[in-house]
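INFO worker-7 received task bundle
INFO bundle size: 2
INFO processing item 0
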Amino acid sequence: MTPRRSFIACIALLALLGASCGEYTDGSASAREFPEAAAPSTSPSPSPREFLEVGDVETAHETAQIVQAAAPAPKSIERWGWALRAKASRLNVYDDPNGGTTLRMSIDALNPWGQRIAFPIRGVRVRGDTTWYRILLGIEPNGSNGWVKGDDVTFDRIRHRVVVDLSERTLRHYRDGKLRHRFSVGIGAPGTPTTVGRFFVWAHLDPRDASGPYGSYLLGLSGFSKVLTYWPGGGRMAIHGTADPTDRGRQVSYGCPRVFNPQMNKLRGIPMGTTVVIRR
């Protein structure tokens, strides 16, 4: 199974992301109007095998080239306000710098579609001439984090935030602390509940068929389902579109929040590295 296909088996699909909104540029297409989806999908709850077809989407918005610094290194960390990207194709992750900065692992800096991952910064420490940043890694188990060297990365200022409230079955999108969008969404069925936690936007994709099971657009997340661990890709989560307006406000999915296509298209300006909080 290719890396592209192995990644895709989201809680209801794998993922996708949006472009920036002016102040942030990550190579994605800018927000724009998109045609409304046709008829609802004939398979609103696709099988795990169908998820593999997401790997044949039209392409990533971002290339695998080394990125230039998008912002200066932050002097202080506003929680969830900054993200970083590796300069190379892999990123070395270390144990706590207070413990001797032992190399723990090396992780991919690009997702399977060649998009450069933006890792949210959770903390910063200065040790001698080296500045260290603690980041969310986007690997299992959910919430995994580690330390990276400032010399290995570039920085992005993130002005967006997404909150999915499962009790209300709503999605809220904030920019600069102000509510920009509020949508009613479908959530996981009782047997495949939506996983709660603090995640980040890990990928963004455009399915070929907006009337298909993933709708018109996908925001791939860093988190994994706690139920569908046997699926290809380990059950990685996503927020994705749906052509069926009756999905809104219902427990209908394998775990991924479903957003009606015309509303999902309005989330295309959300950049990589944006924090996504899913709460009960």
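INFO item 0 finished
INFO processing item 1
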Amino acid sequence: MARPKNDNFLRALLREPTDYTPLWLMRQAGRYLPEYCETRKRAGSFLNLCKSPSLACEVTLQPLARYDLDAAILFSDILTVPDAMGLGLYFADGEGPKFERPLREEWAINDLTAPDPWDHLRYVMDAVVEIRRALNGSVPLIGFSGSPFTLACYMVEGGGSDDFRTVKTMLYSRPDLLHKILAVNAEAVTAYLNAQIESGAQAVQIFDTWGGALSHAAYREFSLAYMQRVIAGLKKTHGGERIPCIVFTKGGGQWLEAIAESGCDAVGLDWTTDLGEARRRVGDRVALQGNFDPVALFASPEAVTKEATRILDSFGGGNTGHAFNLGHGINQHTPPENVAVLVDAVHGYKRK
């Protein structure tokens, strides 16, 4: 399996020299694009869109038709995994994802098992195959999953949460039950990401969206330890090519060194961490990804360019080890024309 024609993103993750700083955007296929909204309307629902390989392929490619991005990311949702575990995922209008059967009872937690991705999540693998075919070797395809802890947050809370009271109460009062959920989730995420790799994903990202909600000690025990378990079980090569792994903990700046030691190839940063400072702290152990504040895309084109340049300047010299990205997913109200400004600013930047 040869590398894509534009392999700058893969080279950045593996700390090899790149022609320029490559970039992709978290949630780059999403509601800020009118063409995405049209496809979603055609699908009838968000879940239908996720579960149709042809429509998932269509929306994955939409941002690449508009912008000169250096990678595609599989269009899916992190909650497909707990859905495959039988928790009954649904999307309430204006309320985000919910589960019909959240994990609250000890018997339900003890009955939890990891789904076979080739059986229960086949539609995701079919989408990966279709997207790779459509990309035709142009840019790499990123696969992804939620982290074991982030998935557990939704599985126990039954949906999103402001304070994660239910899952954190379980963490402190019945850590054995949360560890059981996390162990099953780690097994499920490892199998799911490996199936994506076997289907054609050329890099994978673990989204630890809610790890930053934990205390210092709890983060290491309940989030990082289980991501390490996943990373240790991932296929490092496929078809003769290295498959890099990115870990992104939102709010994880204080644990940078620990994340860098987890076995991943790259650490994703949110906008609260200085990129240059992060580089000094981790040295050449890992590549870094990030970390433009998504809300800065609402500013003037001049301000977008200025902020992108500031971030690139802070990384410092040498075209190795940096993939530009947002510090979190793109906001649905973002002006699409400002994304083009950002792409041009990053690609046009010349390192000192």
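INFO item 1 finished
INFO post-check item 1: The CA atoms of residues 213 and 235 lie 29 Å apart.
INFO post-check item 1: The longest helix spans residues 175-199.
INFO worker-7 idle
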